[in-house]
Amino acid sequence: MEPGMEAARQLPVQLLIVLLATGYLAWLGVVTASFTAAVAMDGLGSSAIRRFAGPVARLGRLSLVSAALLEAGAIVLLVLARVRYPAFVQTGGFWAGVLLPLAAGLALLGLFEAQLTQERHPSLRLAAGLTGVGLSVASTWVLVSGAGALLQPEAWPMAEPPWRFLPTWSGTGRFGEWTLLSFAATGVLIAWAGERAGDPAVTRFARRFGGGVTFVGALGWAPAILFSHYNLPDVTLSPALWALAVAGVLLSGLTAGLAASRLGGGAAPRVRPLAVAASALLGILVVSDHVSRERALVPATLAGVFPAPSAPARAAPAAPEAAGKLAAGKAVFDRVCSLCHRFDVRLVGPPFDETVPKYRKDPGALKAFIRDPVKKDPGYPPMPKPAVTEAEIDAVVTYLLEKAAR
Amino acid sequence: MKAPGPTLAAKAGGLAIAGWVAAWLLALGALAAWRGAVPLAPAQPIAFPHVVHAGRLGLQCTFCHVNAPRSPEATVPPLSTCMTCHETIALDRPEVQKLRGYVARGEPVTWTRVHTLPDWVRFTHKRHVRAGVDCSACHGGVAQMARVTRVRPLTMGWCIGCHRTRGAPTDCTTCHV
Q: Could you tell me how far CA A275 lies from the centroid of its own chain?
């Protein structure tokens, strides 16, 4: 009942969402970015660089098992979102838009990787690689941009089942952030792979290429954060969110500086601090997203998002006329009496279960009291004269006598 | 092995990165200031608790905002509405004493407006209430708010989205004169 208690009960789910989202986005990011780099090297590089495309593609550790794990990760994320935010409309279009391109994209990337060792059909291989990257990225855009719709509950009724899903600008900004950070993290891995290539020319290339990708990815994140925050709905903004953005921009600057000094130069790269920094940046991205979601999705915001279902008929009708009178009486009670009275508890006035039964033998006295109240119990303030008609008094007395404790 | 000191180029590069970061931090600060310029939940002269009246007591919105179903403006009720109950109830509460002070001095309470539309929008409460739009569709769960907060964007896209979903007219002149 208490919002705080509810949030505490949901804490494990929230932690799971943050951890799983970080892991999923980091892994998929490294897969897509490393394959993007491999496709570029394969298509544009010299023969030595082209041979390096294989080790770079393998950075994503793509296999049948890992592809299945990624697909399962996406499913679990969608299910967790359903558990944490039950009112959110997850249309079939959203599910299909996330899962189908991911499966197709990962399959094509696997095909590209398998064909890298062969010299046949280089243009087909390139096409498979490019399409695979495009589909994996498209799946993430649907996921992240659609998750942005969580921040706008008032728009949920517009996501008509079965197929329509709601893309958002704030989510698209987050998607851009993810793309840049994925490249930042993958650049570190490319430099690391280059050290083990055994060819000085490739090693030099990997240091410069990897360093450059990390540098640009990290520095490019700051404008992307600004874009996301510009597009976030008002209700999602909080001091914590701005603080996370500031921390992110500072850390991205530090990462870029590290990348420039450690990867770009001639020295052997020290990848560990950079890998930690890149993971931390992605963590900040996911936590920011979650913080804004939790800020936006409170009961006060969720109220009225969907038209309230019509109240089910209460009070089984004894006879049609009596039922009509009871319903009319209930309407009067709801509109007038319930401001100060309940049946079971003291509110402003006494509980009806205590007072009304005294009138069971003489309903006329109750009607007279309602018509012109007089102070009876010194423990309560005097009852003001209610603005009700004689017919309404008649109906409400019937209702009160029926409903009060016997 | 002693590392050689940073070269001039490295120093310049570091400065350039620091400058880039500083520029975006400034931009972020400006964005934060701009987005926070209009508070979503402004402080009010009397801390009227909707969470008690609309929440715990379950009063209907229109019990106090009587004009919502019959006029363009929902209107804040006159203090006499408050006094029907607070002549006798909860006299010890500081906020109620503040209220009674206003009444005794014959001074109007200058509430701070939370939901504002631009002058070129002709919005009427009456039509929306009569069409069966719940107050919470635009105002959120006021009954759960200790202090009234704007939870909807009040943008044209948001209006149009709802009009489309409910099949309400989307002609320009529906809202713009």
A: 26
Interface residue A261 vs chain B (CB under 8 A): yes
A306: left (phi over 0), alpha (psi -120 to 50) or beta: beta
**CB pair distance less than 8 Å for B17 and A260:** yes
Measured CA to CA, the distance from residue B171 to residue A297 in angstroms comes to: 32
Output the pLDDT for position A268.
Answer: 63
Residue written as token pair 């704030």: A170
Half-sphere exposure of residue A168: CA atoms within 13 angstroms, side-chain side: 27
Give the ipTM of the model, two decimals please: 0.87
- Return the closest-CA partner of residue B135 out of A340, A307, A330, A87: A307
The Cα–Cα gap between A30 and A70 comes to 12
DSSP code at position B144: G
Nearest by CB to A253, from B17, B57, B132: name it. Answer: B17
pLDDT, tens digit, 9 for 90 and up, residues B42-67? 999 999 999 988 887 777 888 889 89
- Cβ pairs bridging A and B (under 8 Å): 117
- Tell me whether residues A225 and B137 touch, CB distance under 8 A: no
Rounded CA separation A324/A317 (Å): 8
Taking every pair of C-alpha atoms in chain A, what is the biggest distance, in angstroms?
A: 105
Residue of B nearest to A306 (CA): B137
Which among A69, A259, A101 is positioned nearest to A181, based on CA atoms? A259
Q: Which residue has the tokens 């950079």?
A: A274
10 Å Cβ neighbour count for A186? Answer: 27
Q: Is the peptide bond before A162 cis (omega within 30 degrees of 0)?
A: yes
- Looking at every residue in chain A, the average pLDDT score rounds to 87
Residues 6 or more apart in contact with residue B150 via CB below 8 angstroms = A234, B40, B41, B114, B115, B140
Q: Is A224 at the interface with chain B, CB within 8 A?
A: no
Does the model's pTM come out above 0.80? yes
**Considering CB atoms only, which of B28, B84, B85 is closest to A246?**
B28
Taking the C-alpha atoms of residue A250 and residue A303, their distance in angstroms, rounded to an integer, is: 38
Instruction: For helices A122-148 and A64-84, give the axis angle rounded to 10 degrees.
Output: 10
Candidates B21, B92, B149, partner chain A, best to mutate (most A CBs within 10 A): B21
pLDDT one-digit tens code per residue, A227-236: 999 999 999 9
List, as ranges, residues 103-162 from A with C-beta within 8 Å of B.
152, 154-155, 157-158
Q: Write out chain A's pLDDT in tens, 406 residues.
A: 455 566 677 788 889 999 999 999 999 999 999 999 999 998 887 888 888 988 999 998 898 999 999 999 999 999 999 888 888 888 899 999 999 999 999 999 999 998 887 777 888 889 999 999 999 999 999 999 999 999 998 888 887 777 888 899 999 999 999 999 999 999 999 988 988 888 888 888 888 899 899 999 999 999 999 999 999 999 999 999 999 999 999 999 999 988 887 665 556 667 788 889 999 999 999 999 999 999 999 889 988 886 544 444 444 444 557 788 889 999 889 878 887 888 988 877 899 999 999 998 999 999 999 988 888 888 787 777 777 889 999 999 999 999 988 7
Q: Which two tokens stand for residue A116?
A: 């890298």
